[in-house]
Amino acid sequence: MSRDATLPAAPAPRIAVLVPCHNEAVAIGGVVAGFRRTLPQACVYVYDNNSSDATREVARAAGAQVGSETLQGKGHVVRRMFADIEADIYVLVDGDGTYDPTAAPAMIRLLRERQLDMVTGLRVSHETAAYRPGHQFGNRLLTGLVGLVFGRRVSDMLSGYRVFSRRFVKSFPALATGFETETEFTVHALELRMPVGEMVTAYAARPAGSASKLRTLRDGWRILGTILGLLQRERPLPFFGGLGGLLFLASLGFFLPVFSTYLESGLVPRLPTFLASVAFLLLSFLSLAVGLVLETVTRGRQEAKRIAYLAIPAPPAPESTAPAATSALQ
After folding, report:
1. What range does the record give for the signal peptide (predicted)?
2. Mean pLDDT throughout 297-314?
3. Three-class DSSP category at 164
4. List of long-range contacts for 113-116, beta carbons under 8 Å, 24+ apart
């Protein structure tokens, strides 16, 4: 018998399916059943977010472990689930029945075989009602903005279908409160230069009788605000340097007419305009100085985040099979 044959088999990875929910009684039973069928070794967790319908009862009847989060918003639910649930691999999916459970095994396999930290379900749909043109355009626009700043490695930033490693979940700060949490996922992975992947998955319309919680304009503005906030926190030198450049241009705009008059007459009759140009010039230098200081602070914070991320074991090797995940649910 070879030496390798005497070694014990590696433990299987614990897989947890996380389903944040708000008033999804119509769809949640099918979602739970679909993931229990395609991932029989996984434990399905449904966290209810102040539903006024029978979401909790339907999810429990379908075989899910049910928890709750009273702070309203998807970001709050995700933060609670990431804190409560212990697993090696996490599948995060919306509870509206629009994502294909049969794609989950392939997404998990991709994560394990390539030792990735995040696999995003790249939504593809031929149903207009499922993925409206306005939502597609907004997604491309916001994804493009993030790609321009943080790197073009994710094609569908707002997808609600993801597979994460444990080290992603346990190092994720989870500061968002609503649908902008998907933006945070993407920036967290790109900022720490995590290995990430994508896989095409079908995206269907909601079942009849259910209603979307996404409000295109309101949530789009919130996501855009989140991107700007992340830019200010994670890229302070370009942010404040760009602001300083705008202030410098404003200073020139005030100064040039005054200077032109001075060359012609030797006088400075527009003293308030001249003072305004000086004020904007000082503000531009101040903005640049703030950017330089915060860039140093941000670099130290990024190093600390990277060390915390590396302190968590890498995803398990692909040879193993998994027991159910454990949770802080009582």
Report:
1. none
2. 86
3. strand
4. 113/318, 114/195, 114/197, 115/195, 115/314, 115/315, 116/165, 116/194, 116/195, 116/196, 116/197, 116/315
Q: Residue 324: is it exposed, middle or buried by C-beta count within 10 angstroms (0-12/13-18/19+)?
A: middle
Exposure letters 120-153 (e unless 16+ CB within 10 A, then b): bbbbebeeeebbeeebeebbeebbebbbebbeeb
Number of H helices and number of E strands within the chain?
10, 9
How far apart CA 294 and CA 288 sit, in angstroms, is: 10
Instruction: Identify the architecture of domain 11-234 in CATH.
Output: Alpha-Beta Complex (3.90)
Please report where in the chains the tokens 């966290």 appear, as a residue. Answer: 47
Query: Mean pLDDT across the stretch 88-105?
Result: 94
Instruction: Quickly list DSSP for 170-223.
Output: TT------STTHHHHHHHHHHHTT--EEEEEEEB-PPPTT------HHHHHHHH
3-state secondary structure of 69: coil
Q: How far is CA 284 from the centre of its chain?
A: 32
**pLDDT for the residue numbered 1:** 46
Q: Which of 114-118, 175-179, 201-205 has the highest mean pLDDT?
A: 114-118
Does the structure show a pLDDT above 90 at 177?
no
Edge to edge, what strands does the sheet with 89-92 contain?
Answer: 65-68, 43-48, 15-21, 89-92, 162-165, 118-124, 196-202
Minimum mean pLDDT range among 123-132, 215-224, 231-240: 123-132
Q: Is the dihedral of CA 164, 167, 169, 171 positive or negative?
A: negative
Q: What type of residue sits at position 2?
A: S
**Of residues 194, 185, 195, 167, the one with CA closest to residue 227:** 185
Largest CA distance in the chain: 101
> What does the pLDDT read at residue 329?
55
Delimit the domains of the chain by residue range: 11-234, 236-310
